[in-house]
Design goal:
single chain, about 525 residues, alpha/beta, Udp-n-acetylmuramoylalanyl-d-glutamate--2,6- Diaminopimelate Ligase, Chain: A, domain 1, Beta-Lactamase, Alpha-Beta Plaits, 4 domains, 20 helices, PucR_C-HTH_sf, GAF-like_dom_sf, Sugar diacid utilization regulator, CdaR-like_regulators
Length: about 525
């Protein structure tokens, strides 16, 4: 039997932090969820998750009860996990106290803990590191069980067409509608009609929080429903059969599980689509220009016409990059002409598309991408879309390299466009390449420009910008001052100070050119 130290180590420090661990750490029997109003299921050697325990008094009651029942550990979220009285109570009871990091979904934690207890690999610290190829439908059933524990109710996971993908094992609360849904693997038409009449599906299509559906006149029990979304797309929903309205804390915890379910659902979709996996392997051969690229092109039935490589990068601040990337992959390969060829390399999606007008060509994909980006929910991360030049199949690695070059500009924020195309940014690319080369040559260390830089840093002046505007608008102080949004007289005064600090002959054309190169290198170097 694994002990609490081993269990915490398996799940990892990103999610769990031991606060109190007795010298003789007990073994772990089961993982249970308990709130202070219902502690009946706690037993010997249990690891108890304090879902909804937010006050010191509630935490103390839970810790003391767990100690009396000889549980092994209590898991709490801050700030109650750090309260001195709670820590002392755990130590007195010989009970392990483990802090659950803020933002951790309880359902994810239940899943990981039980996977660790079962001896399955939860990956390195911080959560499930399953590769896409290891996910399966069985994982969805385990997720359904974990979600059922969080909401304390039987759960079904359904796709966007009300097909049942997985359901929890517990059957303690049920009604004929749930039984027929599970038996038929989809919600019956008459049940769907009732929920549609109440506007449930309309709310699902628009919202992101839990929806409470009251009991129906025919005896259908209340439901708590949560939409499953990723990348602006409604992937499905989760339905929990409840006996009455649930607390706001449980409803929120239920809603938080949707991101985990969405990621697992997308992984499952990817691995079940063997054709997409095969295509991705062949596309990678084309992008890398490996020896087998000709065979890959033949197997993909790619025409000899020029193609473009489109790089799409999704970075989500909440750590759901993979889910948004998979959602974008699904969307791109669904119904845009015959579907662009897509592969993932290094966390970036690369689509290969013919450079021609009409169905399936680059203009069609461009319009579809623009429409998709503009229709995305405000909370969804905006993808960075960078487009390489048109190239023959044998030179697709060149197109990919140019797409990567544009993507680097988008990542730095030097360019802000919904879709950035290499040819349309030639002037910016000239400046950034020149800036990179000049910086590598150490031009910034030459001459008197450092004096202006030091003065700007120490005195808060804007002499570098002033000089740059003067060089950009030679002999036109009004245009230069307008660029800086200052009065022309203020601009002239600044330039007198700049000339004095520089001590350089600004009438010399070569001096002006050298200064401009240095300023451009400083501004446009993407690594500076």
């Amino acid at each position: 039997m694994v002990d609490i130290r081993g269990l915490v180590e398996r799940v990892g420090p990103t999610l769990l932090r031991p606060v109190v661990v007795p010298e003789k750490a007990g073994g772990v029997g089961d993982v249970v969820i308990a709130e202070t109003e219902d502690l009946g299921e706690i037993g010997t050697a249990d690891v108890v998750l304090g879902v909804g325990v937010a006050s010191r008094a509630s935490a103390l009651e839970l810790v003391r009860e767990c100690g009396a029942r000889e549980a092994t550990a209590v898991l709490l979220k801050p700030p109650v996990s750090c309260e001195d009285s709670v820590v002392a109570a755990a130590a007195d009871a010989g009970l392990a106290l483990v802090e659950v990091r803020r933002g951790t979904a309880w359902a994810q934690l239940v899943w990981l803990l039980r996977s660790a207890l079962a001896g399955t690999d939860t990956g390195p610290a911080g959560g499930s590191q399953q590769q896409v190829g290891s996910a399966g439908l069985g994982d969805l059933f385990r997720v359904a069980d974990a979600v059922a524990e969080v909401v304390d109710a039987p759960v079904t996971i359904e796709d966007a067409h009300s097909q049942v993908l997985a359901y929890s094992a517990r059957q303690d609360v049920t009604d004929p509608a749930r039984v027929s849904t599970i038996m038929g693997r989809r919600q019956p038409d008459d049940v769907l009609a009732k929920f549609r009449a109440r506007g449930t599906f309309r709310q699902l299509s628009r919202g992101g929080s839990a929806i409470y559906v009251p009991e129906q006149p025919d005896g259908t029990l209340p439901r708590l429903v949560v939409p499953i979304r990723m990348g602006g797309e409604l992937l499905g929903s989760m339905w929990a059969v409840v006996t009455d309205e649930v607390s706001e804390q449980r409803a929120s915890a239920f809603a938080e599980t949707a991101a985990l379910v969405a990621l697992q659902l997308l992984r499952w979709r990817v691995i079940t689509d063997s054709e997409r996996q095969r295509s991705a392997r062949l596309v990678r051969s084309l992008l890398e220009g490996s020896e087998g690229w000709r065979a890959a092109a033949n197997e993909l039935a790619v025409g000899a016409e020029p193609h473009r490589v489109v790089a799409i990068d999704v970075r989500a601040s909440d750590g759901t990059d993979e889910g948004h990337r998979l959602a974008m992959w699904e969307w791109i390969t669904r119904g845009i002409g015959r579907g662009p060829m897509v592969a993932e390399v290094g966390g970036v999606l690369y689509a290969v598309v013919p450079d021609r007008s009409g169905t399936g060509g680059w203009p069609a994909l461009r319009e579809a991408l623009l429409g998709h980006i503009r229709e995305m929910d405000a909370a969804d991360p905006r993808p960075l879309v960078a487009v390489g030049t048109a190239a023959p199949l044998a030179e697709l690695p060149v197109s990919r390299g140019r797409a990567d070059e544009v993507l680097a500009l988008l990542r730095t924020g030097m360019v802000e466009r919904e879709i950035a195309v290499h040819e349309q940014l030639w002037h910016t690319l000239v400046l950034t390449r020149m800036a990179g080369a000049a910086s590598d040559a150490g031009v910034d260390a030459l001459g008197p420009l450092a004096r202006l830089r030091d003065n700007d840093r120490s005195q808060g002046t804007e002499y570098l910008r002033t000089l740059h505007s003067w060089l950009r608008h030679p002999g036109d102080p009004r245009a230069a001052s307008g660029e800086l949004n200052v009065h022309p007289n203020t601009f002239r005064y600044r330039m007198k100070r700049v000339s004095a600090l520089l001590g350089a002959d600004l009438d010399d054309a070569d001096v002006r050119s050298a200064l401009l190169v240095q300023l451009l290198a400083e501004r446009w170097n993407p690594h500076g």
